[in-house]
Amino acid sequence: MAGTFSKRKALRLLAAAVAEKMPYIKNAGSLFPQSYMKGAKYGMAVHGYLPDCGTVNDGLVATPDKAHQVEITAYLRNKNTAVEVDMWDEFTNIEDFRKEIVDKRSGKLAREVQKAVMAENVFRSAQCVVATSAGLSMLGEAAAKLEELQVDGDKVCFQTPTVFDKIGDSTLKNFLPSAIMTDIYEDAALGTYHQVGQVQLPGLPIVDTTGMDAAPTVTAEVVKDASNNIIGIKPINTITGSGTGSLITGVPYKVSGLYVVDEGGIETAQEYIIIVNEEVRYDADGNASTVQYIPEVRVSATGKSYGNPNAHMSASAIAAAVSGSDVTLTLSPVLTASKQYLCGQARTIKGLSFDQYRFDSLPAAKQDEIGTYENITLKMQSAPQLLNGVNCLRIDLPWVAKQFEIRQSVTTYLELA
User: Fold this and answer.
1) Rounded to an integer, what distance in angstroms lies between the CA atom of residue 298 and that of residue 265?
2) What is the pTM of this model?
3) What residues contact residue 64 under an 8 Å CB cut-off, 6+ apart?
4) Buried b (16+ CB within 10 A) or exposed e, 162-197
5) Phi/psi at 272 (nearest 5 deg)?
6) Buried-state track 370-407, b at ≥16 Cβ within 10 A, e below 16
7) What is d(CA 51, CA 182) in angstroms, rounded to the nearest whole number?
8) pLDDT along the chain (417 residues), means of 10
């Protein structure tokens, strides 16, 4: 770049502005193996693994068991913005560049990426809180649900400015100041409540339950031991509509008698919630489609610790749902039909994995610079646009994101009047 500062410095300035405008991914974890990021291509599936907690035995006899790792899959994504080279090169000082390029371009790129990440991760939870009015009780209950599962790590709760406005300034005075949260989330941090940082975040999803399916089902194979005793159910990944309504993304369901097993393998009395999710997936040719799914439910019969469970159910309840070799469980909605709900999320800060990858430059393009700030890396390429004779600078933000462990997340629902 002509003038007093380089493209690398300018790109880092842009990366910093983008990072500051994406509080949802600030300080996120990096949980996908970096070996997957080498030679990565847009749309590729990458895999990470959740280890199990093993088995604890009484007495002096040790009985080793098999490791039951759970595969977590996500897809490599990318968004970009472009600017004419002549426009970029005309700036010779940082302040002009900040006003004309950074302030205008960073906000749009950041909002689009953050929106995509939130849409695919806010509902990746094993528990939920439903409230008919805004108040500290909703925030406190979300925090308590994480505590009931003995979830480790710093925690944050994202709610829309509308929710905090409904709670009211006088009530928000109950929040305790937190230098740590202010350092991470800056002006968006409102303090802590029940040891969870409270952060206001525009753009969180709204769920409309009009026409929702009232009785979808999940089906999987029953598992028995050598003595023909039920010990669990094979992993459940899909949900089937009943035909009486639609499966709506974000709608939570419960199953009578299904409870959470925490990350330490301890069976709890916390209701396990199954939430309809959706994500963009890619086929072998790179074609994208939006797919509805449910985060994997791994059910052990109570007291059996089958596999690497995140849920448990009594053997008698499983037996009552068996037909042939399969178990079919009927779900009931947690929300009220024909209502709208403002959604939020309480989770561990590091529970969301946000990783970046480098892809090859486009044909006829020249990779100019890489600009990095915190966990945001931007890639700049320059290429001629032959049809209009203009040289362009293309700025890409490649990423892969996933709420890795759904037991580290609670989705909140505030009913709108």
Assistant:
1) 12
2) 0.90
3) none
4) bbbebbeeeeeeebeebeebeebbeebbbbbbbebb
5) -85, 130
6) ebbbbbbbbbbbbbeeeeeeeebbbbbbbbbbbbbbbb
7) 33
8) 57 84 93 75 87 68 69 91 63 60 77 96 98 95 97 96 90 88 90 96 97 98 97 96 96 98 96 97 88 97 94 98 97 98 98 84 58 84 59 81 97 95
